[in-house]
Structure formats: structure tokens, C-alpha cells
Amino acid sequence: MTSSGDRAIDLNADLGEGFGVWRLGDDDALLGVVTSANVACGFHAGDPTTMRRVCAGAVATGVAIGAQVSYRDLAGFGRRFIDVAPAELTDDVLYQLAALDGVARAGGGRVSYLKPHGALYNAVVTHEAQARAVVAAVLAYDPALPVLGLPGSVLLRKAEAAGLRTVAEGFADRGYTPEGTLVSRRSPGALVQDVGAVAERAVRMAAEGVVVAVDGTTVDVAVDSVCVHGDTPGAVELARAVRAALADAGLVVRSFSAG
User: Fold this and answer.
1) Model confidence, pTM
2) What span, in angstroms and rounded, lies between the C-alpha atoms of 171 and 164?
3) At 170, which helix (H) or strand (E)?
4) Under 8 Å between Cβ of 214 and 9
5) Which of 9, 92, 183, 199 pairs as cysteine with 190 (C-beta 3.0–4.6 A)?
6) Model confidence over 30-48: pLDDT tens digits?
């Protein structure tokens, strides 16, 4: 693998996705690997105690804290589309963002970016009204907050047009369609779980800006952040392999919000 010079890449994962006594994933272990943590804000997962614990861990390990905002869908883990009115969606996103930022600040940190979760993430790839609603919440709270999303999505276009900083991300452990969108979790090829394959995909995304889709075609996905899902089986092993592979490829692994 040729060196990528001083090119930097962020490594993010979804954290804090338990609720009450129920835990999902190994937040503490992932905080020792990733550079940015997408913390659930209570609408699809997470609760005040979980949010505070993960934020404290992120502060202690120097990991950037991001608000992982969602539809109000605890039962469905935020993976069901909801045809919510745009004004209500703005309020829901603002509520989640403000709540997590308050918890983070109480522990000496702060929210430094926003990323939609699950069905909302996929919806705002093409849904104009909901994308505008998410952007409106960020503008209302802090126009300096970057927005993390899929390359070419309506969300990132709307955010950029509104003057927000946008950060494109790729998913090392998810399948892609030939159009550059994510394969539905209900379809074959949605998850990539082989450690070597996930690490290789991460490097190609970060260094070459491409990913191989489920039909074998190569898709352009220029990204500044790579995601490994915290609820993917073997997530910690995958994240460690991805980070090592990125470093071996000559990439500097650091948060896009650092500095």
C-alpha cells in the first residue's frame, strides 16, 4: 500500500445505544479506538445516565462527541421511517442536540458535530423537507457545528448551502448500492463482517475515495470520516483492524473536529 502522506481521516462509531439496564456494544473499548463518538440522544436509544457515562468517557480519552439524532422511535431503534412534520422534526433534533450538549458540558466536554441515525440518516439522503428540518435545528443551536452525512446527500447539500460545515462519511461495514447509497438492512449484502474486508474497504474509502458496491462496480465516495457501527457483531475487533489498516496506509487518524 502506498503512503497517503499527511492525509487525515476520522474514525467514528455509534455509542451509548443502550437503554436503562440494557447495554448494546462495548462503549468503553470503542472509546479507546475511535476518534469521534456518535452518542445516542435518547430518541432511538440512550438515556441520561448512559449519555453522561459515554460523554465522560469521551472526554477522558480525547474523543470528539457528536449528537446522534433520530426519529422518536425507541421501539424500532430509529430504523423506521416516520413521516413527521418538518417543524416537529426540527424541534425533535434541537431537543436531542441541546440535551446531549448539556450533559457533555457538565462533564467538561461539548458536542462538536451532528449526525443523523438510522432511518433519518437514510431519509435525508433524498428527502428535501426532512433534510431542511435537520439543518434548521443545527442553525438554531450552533451554526458552527459540522454535519456528518452521506456524500452527495440532500442533507449535505442543504447544510452547505446554509453555510454549515459538512463532513462526508463512508461505512466500512455496510454494503453499498451502485448509486452510492447504503443497502437496506432487510436486503442481502447489507452488512460486511469479515475483518479483512472491512479494513480494506476503509482504506480504499479514505485513500482512494472509492468503494466496491454489492454488484461489483466501483463507486466514488470521497470521505473525511469512516464509520464502524457499534452494534455490528465484533465491532471492537473491526474498529481496531480499521484503525491499524488506516495507519499502515500512511493516513493520520484523527477527528475532523480536532483543532
Assistant:
1) 0.94
2) 22
3) strand 166-171
4) no
5) 183
6) 999 999 999 999 999 999 9
